[in-house]
Structures are given as structure tokens and as C-alpha cells.
Amino acid sequence: MSFGKANDETGCLHMKTIQALLAGVAIAALAATAATATDKHDQHKKAPEHSDVLNGQVNMSSVISDLKLDVYDVDGDVVGTSVAMGNSASVATLNNTNVTNTQIANRGNIVAVLDAEIEKVDGDVFLTSAASCNQLAVGTDPDKTSVKNDQRCGFDPRVELNGKIANVGGDVVATGAAFGNSATVDAITRELSVNNTQRNEAPIGADVDLTVRRVGGSVTATAAAVGNSLAVTHTPAP
Fold first, then answer.
1. Are 105 and 59 in contact (CB under 8 A)?
2. Is 136 helix (H, G, I), strand (E, B) or coil?
3. How many domains does the chain have?
4. What is each CA distance from 67 to 78, 130, 204, 216, in whole angstroms?
5. Residue 125: how many CB atoms within 10 A of its CB?
6. CB neighbour list of residue 65: distance below 8 Å, 6 or more residues apart
7. Range of the domain at 106
8. Which of the residues 22, 101, 151, 174 has the least number of beta carbons within 10 Å of its own beta carbon?
9. What is residue 27's three-state secondary structure?
10. Is 41 a domain residue?
């Protein structure tokens, strides 16, 4: 089987998955801290009622990730990930929050490359190559959340994933995803306001070249190139 190119197409959720994991870890840490914080009378301390997050990031140089895998005879799974990001921010809070985010990537190539030769694996094989100019992930659980986001991408995010895979007992999943600007907001709140501006002026490319032989499970291959992406999930608080 052979899989080719995608340019400026939506469809891959891997970047949002990474962001969600980062936000989830941060929220879990905050929750644990709040649950164990006590005053001198052994009562829980009151959490701050308001958070203001002001983030400004500028990337003006190349960001390159290059991973080469040569794997043979594995009893379990094989996971390979190559990620290049110009600017990345993750915000997780449990109180009323205002987020103002500005990210600019206008110089230097942002490239993620993954080359893999894999043979004789009893479990599953997961390969991911991902690149992004700008990323923002916001996860909150308060009464009110406001997000103002401004992202500008002016240089080329590009991914390459080349794989030769044979004799796999489980599944094979290969993903190549390139984003210009990506923002994810996940809020459990009574009031949510999102003001989003994303501008991409760069060519974006995702190139996946995969050859697979003798797989016991399923084979899934994805090549996705996305200029601008915004995902908002609002769950009204009781």
C-alpha cells in the first residue's frame, strides 16, 4: 500500500490531541493542589477567583525535528513521534479566566521528519510526524472564560513521514499533520467569549509515503495540511 500527499486540507486531530493532553495534565495538577491546600485550621484554602493570562510569543528561526527508527523483533508496541512547533501555549485554570494570546512565526522553516523501517512487531505500530507555526490550548472550569487569540504564520510548516513496515500482529496507524495556526478552547462555564484571529501566509505541506506488508489488524494512514484551525467546546456549567 502506498499513500501520498495532502495540502491545505482539514482532517487530522493529532495536534488537538497533544494540546488536550497537556491541558489535562495541568488541570489535574491544579485540582490536586487545590484539594490538599489547607489553612492553619485544616480547612481548604479558597482558590483565587480570577486569572489573567497574557502571552506573547515570536519565533524567528528554524525549528527542525528529525527522527529515524530502525526496529526489529518487538513483543509489544512501537510508537514513534516527531514534532516541530514554532510557538506553543497551554493554559489550564479552575477559576474565572481571561486569556490574551499573540503568537507570530514569520521566519525560519518548521519541519518534522520521521523515517521508519519496522519489522516483526507483535503489537501495534503508531507513527506521527507533526509541525505547526502556532498552537494554543485553553482548558477551564470556572463561571466565566474569555479568550482573545491572534496567531500569524508566515513561514512553511512541513512534515514528512516515510515508512516501510512488515509483519505486524496488530494495527498500523501513520499520521502526518501540518498546521499553520491552531487553537483549542474547552470550557465548562456559564459564560464563554472567544475572539479569534488567525492569518496564514505560508505554504503548508504534509507528505506521507508508507509501504505496508503482512499486517494482522487494520491500517490507517492520514496526511493533513491545515492553514487555520479553531475548535471550541462549551459545556454549560450547572
1. yes
2. strand
3. 1
4. 14, 12, 20, 26
5. 27
6. 82, 83, 84, 111, 112, 113, 131
7. 5-36+52-235
8. 22
9. helix
10. no
Single-letter amino acid code for the residue at 231 = A
Q: What is the pTM of this model?
A: 0.79
- Distances from the Cα of 17 to the Cαs of 12, 128, 135, 161, 236, in angstroms? 10, 12, 12, 19, 22
**198 is a domain residue:** yes
Task: Report in angstroms the alpha-carbon separations of 176 from 49, 56, 129, 154.
Answer: 41, 28, 5, 20
Q: How many residues in the chain?
A: 238
Query: How many whole angstroms separate alpha carbon 216 and alpha carbon 117?
Result: 18
How many Å apart are CA 179 and CA 200, to the nearest integer? 10
User: Considering only 9-18, 108-117, 189-198, 208-217, which range has the smallest mean pLDDT?
Assistant: 9-18
User: Model confidence over 10-36: pLDDT tens digits?
Assistant: 334 444 544 443 334 334 443 443 443
Q: Would you say 20 and 229 are in contact if contact means Cβ atoms under 8 Å apart? A: no
Give the C-alpha separation, 65 to 83, whole Å: 6
Distance of alpha carbon 9 from alpha carbon 134, whole angstroms:
17
CA angle 192, 194, 196 (to 5 degrees): 170
Q: Is 185 within the bounds of a domain?
A: yes
Report the C-alpha gap between 176 and 60 in whole angstroms.
24
Does any domain span residue 162? yes
